[in-house]
Amino acid sequence: MVAFLIFTFVNLYHLATTASLTTVSFAFTFFILACAVIVLYWTAALLVDVDWTRSLFGTNSATDPFFTDSF
Amino acid sequence: MHHLSDVIKQKSYEHIVYLLRRHPITFIPQIVLFVILAAIPVIIFVFLNNYFDSLFTDPIYYPLLVLAGSVYYLSILLFFYTEFIIFYLDIWIVTNDRIVDIEQLGLFSRSISELDLFRIQDVTSDTHGVIATIFKYGVVTVKTASSNVHIIFKNIKNPDKVREDLIHYSHIDRKFHMGAEKLDEH
Prior knowledge:
The structure holds two protein chains of two kinds.
Chain A: H1 2-17, H2 23-46
Chain B: H1 4-7, E1 16-21, H2 28-51, H3 61-88, E2 91-95, E3 98-106, E4 109-116, E5 120-126, H4 130-135, E6 137-144, E7 150-157, H5 159-185
Helix pairs in contact in B: 2-3
C-alpha cells in the first residue's frame, strides 16, 4: 500500500512537471484511485469476520506442521 | 505547477504551433492487457470455488487469498498507471523556432531532444496498416544534414499535415536566419 502511494505520487509529480495536468490525465488518475479505493473497500469487507487474534499455527489446527498428538 | 513555456524555456519571440502526443488508439493494447490481468484472479476464484471450495471457509487460507488478491490488484493498477504515464508523457512540441522531443522511456528515465527548424533537411511521414489509415495516425521522421540528429514523431495524429507544416515553418525559419546572417555580414 505504501509502495502504491509512493509510486502514485511519483507519477503525479511527472504529470505536474511536464505540464501534463490535463482533463485526460485527471480522468485517468481518478479512475486509478477509484479502483484502488474499491479494492481496499472489498478487501476490508471480505476480511471483516476474520479472527486476527488466531495464531497462524494453532495447537489444534490441522494446518500446524509442528502439531503432534500428546501421549 | 509547470506550464509548457517553463518546460521548453520558451523564448520571447517563440510561439507554440503544435503540442503533439501519441494517438489514443495506440494505448488500446495496454488496456487489453490490463483487462486480461484483472480477469486472472476471477478465473482462479471460479476454479478454486469449483474444486477447492473448502479454502474459502478455512480460517488461514481465506484471509491469505483475499490479501494476495488485494496486493495483486493494487500492483496491476500501479503497472497500468505507469504505462499510461510513459504513453502520455511522450510529447512533441513544435514552435516557430524549434522542435522539442520529450520521450518518457520509463518511470525514472526521460530523453529530451531539441532541433532548430532551419536545420531540417528532410521530413517524411509514414502511415502503415488498416487501423492507422482509418484513424489517421502515423510516424513523422525529421532529418537534418547531420546523420546524428533526427527526431521521430511516433504515432501522432494527421502526420501528413504535420509534415507539411514542418516544411513550411522550416522554410520561414531558414529565411529568417539567412536574413539575420546577411545583416551580421554588413
